[in-house]
Design a protein that fits this description.
By secondary structure, the chain is α/β, with parallel strands linked by helices. The chain has 2 domains: about 190 residues, Rossmann fold, CATH 3.40.50; about 180 residues, Glycogen Phosphorylase B (Rossmann fold), CATH 3.40.50.2000. Helices cover about 40% and strands about 15% of the residues. The chain has a 7-stranded parallel sheet, sandwiched between helices. It has a 6-stranded parallel sheet with strand order 10-9-8-11-12-13, with helices on both faces. The longest helix has 18 residues. It is globular. It starts with 10 loop residues before the first strand and ends in a 6-residue tail after the last helix.
Length: about 375
């Protein structure tokens, strides 16, 4: 993508994340970095704690470094970040979580004339500790440092405004999905694909794509699956993802399940497309999400979505034509929803998947998302353009 007039030099952009391990925010950040014009942008990704497997997805020109911060607060990390910003002479710094904004507030160069513009984005609906008085006050104060604040779903934006976390430039920039990469598989090819992946071709496969974090609620999902599976011998559960504080306990729970022969865990997949294509339904039972990429990727592959109503997917999957937004707050409710959808006529589920694909292609394209990111960055570095 070209600009109306090119800057005299490349725009130096710094992205700050905690790590490049599996996560929806990390996935979007990688797509944005790869989609920006390398002739216009010089991009550095700074991981406060560690890098991760998503670093392999970045194009070679993107510089990746880690400050190796240990758990807890670190003044040394703030000093490292300060040195990086001064030496890098960045024009724009984009923080993607509160931790990054906190460290950036301490690391900003002085005087103000050499400070970069700060862009901050929120990627989840605030919950638990994020709703504490301390966290809310931190956001209220630190938002003032940013030139803009944006969310990835309207539900998030409504929550921030209801909490009094407002900004003069505050808006929603929805995630997008690569419709060419994430595409449907003809139904007549699904059985062969499942056999190639080691999946029973005759099962109704319920998929989940997430790291093993408490808010992703693997345990209630497995318990709900067990209830539904006891009544329906066709059901199978397919889990993609790795890492997270609950990994050991979830894997132990699977091993102890009386339905463990119908639960398949395949870890983190650098190419998740065939696994989406093998599913009949994607379930998102999370306690909180912003705009989960898994939902967009599944929809683009022609797979309908069942999502918890507290997740930020209502605006893209809440019309009832291609997905289901329901109360999944308990294992029993999860089981009821899974059983009902699995008992629908196969044509109904396939029709919902086809409608999901159409919606994703028309409304959630990666190209549209990148246009918005280009416009956002261009507006903030407009002073650099002759």
């Amino acid at each position: 993508m070209s600009f109306p007039s090119e800057p005299r030099r490349k725009v130096r952009l710094l992205q700050i994340v905690d790590s490049l391990h599996q996560g929806g925010m990390e996935n979007i950040m990688v797509q944005v970095c790869n989609g920006l014009d390398p002739d216009v942008f010089e991009i550095t990704v700074c991981c406060l704690s560690r890098t991760g497997p998503f670093a392999e997805r970045l194009r070679p020109e993107v510089r990746v470094l880690s400050l190796e911060k240990q758990p807890g607060f670190s003044l040394a990390t703030a000093w490292q970040l300060h040195s990086l910003i001064v030496q890098g002479k960045f024009d724009l710094v984009h923080t993607h979580h509160l931790g990054g904004l906190i460290y950036l507030s301490l690391a900003r160069p002085y005087p103000a004339t050499i400070r970069p513009h700060i862009i901050h984005s929120e990627h989840i609906i605030l919950h638990d500790d994020e709703l504490s008085r301390r966290r809310l006050l931190q956001r209220k104060l630190l938002y003032r440092l940013a030139s803009c604040i944006f969310t990835v779903s309207s539900q998030q934006l409504e929550q921030l405004q209801s909490l009094g976390l407002t900004h003069r430039r505050q808006f929603t920039l929805r995630n997008g999905v690569d419709g060419q990469r994430f595409h449907p598989l003809p139904s007549e090819q699904r059985a062969a694909l499942r056999q190639r992946l080691g999946l029973d071709p005759d099962r109704f496969w319920i998929g989940k794509v997430a790291r093993f974090a408490p808010l992703k609620r693997h345990h209630p999902l497995i318990e709900g699956f067990e209830i539904a599976a006891g009544e329906n011998p066709r059901l199978g559960l397919l889990l993609l993802g790795d890492n997270g504080s609950e990994k050991e306990s979830v894997l132990a729970r699977i091993e102890a399940s009386s339905f463990r022969d119908r639960i398949v865990w395949v870890g983190l997949q650098q190419d998740p497309v065939p696994w989406y294509q093998a599913m009949d339904l994607l379930v998102i039972a999370s306690e909180s999400e912003g705009m989960p990429n898994a939902a967009l990727e599944a929809m683009s592959c022609g797979i309908p979505v069942l999502a918890n109503e507290v997740c930020g997917v209502r605006e893209v999957a809440g019309d009832g034509n291609h997905s289901w937004i329901e109360d999944l707050s308990s294992s029993e409710r999860i089981a009821s929803s899974l059983s009902r959808i699995a008992d629908l006529p196969p044509d109904s589920v396939r029709d919902a998947g086809a409608a999901a694909r159409t919606y994703a292609k028309d409304q959630l394209s990666l190209e549209a998302m990148m246009e918005k990111y280009h416009s956002l960055y261009r507006e903030d570095f407009s002073r650099l353009i002759p």
